[in-house]
Amino acid sequence: MYKFEPANPSFCSLRPFLRVQDGSNIVDYNYNRIICLNWLKSNPTFTVKVFCCESEASFLGKESSAALRNSFAPKAGKQNLRHQYYLQPQASSSKVAILGAAGGIGQPLALLIKMSPLVSALHLYDIANVKGVAADLSHCNTPAQVLDFTGTSELANSLKGVDVVVIPAGVPRKPGMTRDDLFNINANIVKTLVEAVADNCPDAFIHIISNPVNSTVPIAVEVLRRKGVYDPKKVFGVTTLDVVRANTFVAQKKNLRLIDVDVPVVGGHAGITILPLLSRTKPSVSFTDEEVEELTVRIQNAGTEVVEAKAGAGSATLSMAYAAARFVESSLRALDGDTDVYECAYVQSELTELPFFASRVKIGKKGIEAVISSDLQGLTEYEEKALEALKPELKASIEKGVAFAQKQTVTA
Ligand SMILES: NC(=O)c1ccc[n+]([C@@H]2O[C@H](COP(=O)([O-])OP(=O)(O)OC[C@H]3O[C@@H](n4cnc5c(N)ncnc54)[C@H](O)[C@@H]3O)[C@@H](O)[C@H]2O)c1
User: Is 209 in the pocket of ligand 1 (CB under 6 A)?
Assistant: First the structure.
């Protein structure tokens, strides 16, 4: 007997896992839906349910336990061994590069990605201090092979054959600074790194974390365009942290189970351009006007909360690494053939009159398959006003990025 329970509503950034119950023995396996279904077909005698689990709550738990199960499989009892054999993940061939891997975000992000069984190789690039990070990480007994690359002479090699490039390189905010204040330094860094991506792995998914994301994504796009390799489906500004924060704060405020909460966040990734659509919260929940105002402002300023608490020692790194790992994991699942992957991201968009906009997108093997427009329909009056209010600021940040890139020399 088995039961397939696709509890996952389509527009939900949750992921399925397979729970196998054999007598009193219950094991959860993290799988994409295709593998789940194939397994179910060949094992019709188990009581099996496919559940959904919130990536936020489970990234480490599910992925690391899958990796650990790999190493322990030979020690399992005979009967279990057979079950485990069917359930072992196929070795995945995805290669991930982190540019800026020795930094505050880069290091914990590298650790989280190293724990994913979907990664066969993890390339760590930085201008300094990356050798030690790679040596340290390489001792973890998870499948991904870790390679280090230091300085511009090794940048090209760090990108060869890579499927996903994550860019957290740059300087973080200090108290009193806005994300825009980072522009001059980080704009140049992103421009240089994306040029190398264009030359060495033009088909890779590119995840841009370096701030100000509202401008660095248009810079990256302009560079790729001038290199003749721009694919709008594959360039993502990482805004997952806004969703992670929104989910956490809403769950706390309304006393909900964290794993149940999903709040889409649209617009951009700075101040008022961050617009959590609380009216679209799943599960459906009602908020007073005061709660909407308080939550919206807290989500918009959550980065500053961290910058001030760190008092000059940087900006959000651990929560950012966690959010970026979730986005990488979603991309890897999409590349692996999962057809049910949704995340919010800042991308080229036609949802509004602005050329770039963060919204929920459906990600597939070849990148963005759809930009989800339904979240923007039937907004509350508060959200409508906030949406109109954010547009001039977002437009200015986009134009600043484009103007910067157009002044640069890009080698063909
Ligand atoms: N998208 C988001 O939600 C979000 C959240 C937090 C921080 N950020 C941004 O992420 C970036 C990194 O933050 P951090 O706290 O890790 O900073 P950090 O200073 O701790 O680390 C940055 C790393 O980048 C490296 N680096 C600098 N120039 C480089 C280059 N040309 N090539 C490769 N590496 C280079 C540095 O050596 C350092 O290791 C900042 O721009 C920050 O504003 C984004």
Answer: yes
Residues 6+ apart with CB under 8 A from 377: none
Task: Identify the residue whose tokens are 């039961």.
Answer: 3
Q: Are residues 279 and 315 part of one domain?
A: yes
| Alpha carbon distance 330, 334 (integer Å) | 6
Atom 38 in ligand 1: which residue has the minimum CA distance? 103
Active site residue 139: no
Please say whether the beta carbons of 201 and 160 come within 8 A: yes
Which residue from 315, 326, 346 has its CB within 8 A of the most atoms of ligand 1, so it is best to mutate? 315
Fill in the amino acid letter for 361: V
Claim to verify: residue 57 and residue 120 sit in the same structural domain: no
Q: Residues 334, 364: contact at Cβ < 8 Å? A: yes
Q: Same structural domain for residues 227 and 265?
A: no
The CB of 159 under 6 Å from ligand 1? The reply is no
Burial (CB count <10 Å: 0-12, 13-18, 19+), residue 342: buried
pLDDT, one tens digit per residue, over 376-407 is 999 999 999 999 999 999 999 999 999 999 99
pLDDT digits (tens, 9 = 90+) for 223-268: 999 999 999 999 999 999 999 999 999 999 999 999 889 999 999 9
Same domain, 268 and 346: yes
pTM of the predicted model as reported, rounded to 2 decimal places? 0.84
